[in-house]
Please model this.
Amino acid sequence: MKIQINCLEDITAAAQKFLTTLQQSGASTVIAFYGSMGAGKTTFIAALCHELGVTEPVTSPTFAIVNEYASSAPTVTEEAKIYHFDFYRIKRLEEAYDMGFEDYLYSGNLCLIEWPELIEDLLPDDALRVHITVYDDGSRTISW
Model:
């Protein structure tokens, strides 16, 4: 599946389409976002969170590694929590174990992961792997 984003104004519609597709397919609650630095991973995740009813600011958890958001969308998960991870700064897989990453993964809550390449061995087999490709004109494709 692919979604084209031609400009920033398209991101809300892209997030809505992505979420609709996920809900219809019954996809995993673990979603790994792959893309180069500046590809728009955090921006797209922020759009997803806002579509799911998150009212607080959604920012990259680069230094905290994980941010937790409350969702007002009861269909997301029973507890309506969203976990947003950024593994850009980790140096060893053990750091993910030390923070209790597996507890988050198997909580049944939505887990949105930036820089999953660094913890690939910990991702469940059914994790949805989403790729963000940036083109010279600034447009992007979200594909999975």
